[in-house]
Specification:
heterodimer, A: 265 residues, 10 helices, disordered N terminus, B: 225 residues, alpha/beta, 39% helix
């Protein structure tokens, strides 16, 4: 499977983005045109999107069609994840069955906190079986126990261990690398221990030495650049990665090499 | 790369590449304002070229504004929650009046107060520059509040390490004509390249970028009486 559109080997790939909006704060500009302009200015060739409507709504058919439109309008530069809601497995799997194998959808997103279902619940079995069938990586939200947000308890990294172990041939990416302190340590441990577990840099976490510690624990092969745009500006993550005290080879792996391999771009 | 003046450096950062900046100490809230100020005064003796963020509270064993200004005070940090007072309460009035009379900026974590209190202080003390920064809680979900406040209160500034929203500078500078931001990194807790790259890559006029990186904070410091 190869991507459509232009491939520029030294440009970055942002594998954790969101097109659209959610109500909790004011999004300044949600247009695809502006997003592509920002990608250009930051040397980002491709982005992979979990559409906001897939997180806030359940009209998954319409959202899948919107992802197709975004792919076309972006000239193949903005791809998407399928969504898997453990409470609507049939509907979600049907969409995956319909569109898997085309260039638009590059993985499956799960979000235990939004769907309020612990990550080790058997309700997630169908997504791992389907991911294996189509050789699609799974990107999940992961975080640590938070005093500000009780729903993060559904997504702590250790809860993914059961499925990561059972489906060792399915790539599982712990988005946000576990979020904060204890979650980051646990996510890095899992990425170090399980060959199929990966990490991404997305989120609002920028501690000095963060990237270096992930590389030391999990190796650069296991880390990918993700931003969480359109919430967060990708320039912050790029700055942190480029400023990290790691080799240029490792920076390249994080910024684009690993994503090309994992997502077949 | 543009030169920059980092207004949010925490001491123990002696290996930081840029000495251009304002230095704070966690003693402000882990011990006492007096202990923090005594510590920073000793730092000033060692590094008089630097600027310092001293700390105040409504009642202190000693608080000598003249001495602090002579010792390169660039601003005064306030920690209302941790030091158990109210930013906009009557107990803080004498202190804020004194700081306003000196045009000595105050710097407050947004997690230490409320936006209502910040608004009240900005209105009551219009000549007092109020700089909002934060600690491990980004200014992401507050934009429906702080944008109107910045439009209304010309003495309200935001420090940059918390500003991570997609298209933040493009929107605030180009659409709302707000450029009252002061560059800060929260070094060494945070990677300075994150806020720096966001500002350097923003599609805004060079004049605004320079004000944010250097000009605004230097103007505030030069206005201190």
């Amino acid at each position: 499977m190869t991507a459509g559109g232009l491939i520029i080997s030294n440009m970055y790939i942002d594998m954790h983005t969101h097109i659209g909006e959610t109500p909790e704060f004011h999004f300044f500009d949600i247009s695809l045109k502006t997003f592509l302009k920002k990608m250009d200015s930051l040397n980002i060739s491709y982005a992979i999107n979990t559409h906001m409507d897939n997180l806030t709504g359940i009209n998954y058919i319409a959202t899948a069609e919107e992802c197709l439109r975004i792919y076309e309008e972006s000239g193949g530069r903005v791809m998407s994840y399928f969504i898997f809601n453990p409470h609507m497995p049939k509907e979600c799997i049907e969409i995956i069955n319909k569109y898997a194998g085309n260039y638009v959808f590059r993985g499956i997103k799960i979000h235990p906190s939004i769907h309020r279902t612990y990550a080790d619940d058997d309700l997630y079995e169908p997504v791992y079986i389907t991911a294996r069938e189509y050789n699609l990586p799974i990107l999940t939200h992961s975080w640590c126990i938070s005093p500000h947000n009780d729903t993060q308890k559904y997504s702590v990294p250790g809860l993914f261990e059961k499925h990561a172990k059972k489906y060792s041939d399915v790539i599982l990416i712990l988005g946000h690398s576990g979020g904060r302190s204890e979650g980051i340590r646990e996510a890095a441990r899992m990425a170090s221990h399980y060959p199929n577990v990966y990490l991404d840099t997305s989120g609002d976490v920028y501690p000095l030495g963060f990237i270096e510690s992930l590389v030391n624990e999990a190796t650069a092969e296991k880390i990918m650049f993700g931003s969480d745009a359109m919430w967060i500006c990708p320039s912050t993550q790029i700055g942190m990665i480029k400023g990290a005290e790691i080799s240029q080879t490792d920076k390249d792996k994080i910024l684009h090499v690993n994503a090309r391999r994992i997502f077949g771009i | 790369m543009n030169d920059y003046f980092d207004c949010n450096i925490w001491l123990d950062a002696d290996n930081y590449k840029s000495a251009n900046g304002i230095y704070s100490t966690a003693l402000s809230y882990t011990k006492s304002p007096e202990a923090a100020n005594e510590f920073l005064l000793r730092q000033y003796e060692k590094s008089p070229e630097r600027y310092y963020a001293y700390t105040a509270a409504p009642v202190m064993r000693w608080f000598d504004v003249d001495l602090l200004v002579r010792s390169h005070a660039a601003c005064i940090r306030l920690f209302p929650k941790r030091l158990n007072f109210s930013l906009a309460g009557s107990e803080t009035e004498p202190l804020l009046k004194e700081l306003e009379s000196r045009r000595l900026p105050v710097m407050v974590w947004h997690t230490e107060t409320t936006w209502s209190e910040i608004s009240a202080v900005c209105e009551r003390y219009p000549m007092l520059p109020v700089i909002i920064d934060g600690n491990d809680k980004k200014l992401l979900y507050h934009n429906r509040v702080f944008i109107p406040l910045m439009l209304k209160n010309l003495n309200l500034y935001l420090e940059t390490f918390n500003l991570i929203q997609y298209l933040f500078y493009e929107t605030l500078v180009n659409k709302y004509s707000i450029d009252r931001f002061v560059f800060g990194t929260n070094y060494p807790q945070n990677s300075p390249l994150a806020p720096l790259n966001m500002l350097l890559s923003a599609d805004i006029p060079e004049e605004a970028r320079e004000k944010i990186l250097n000009g605004n904070i230097k103007t505030l410091i030069s206005n201190i009486i």
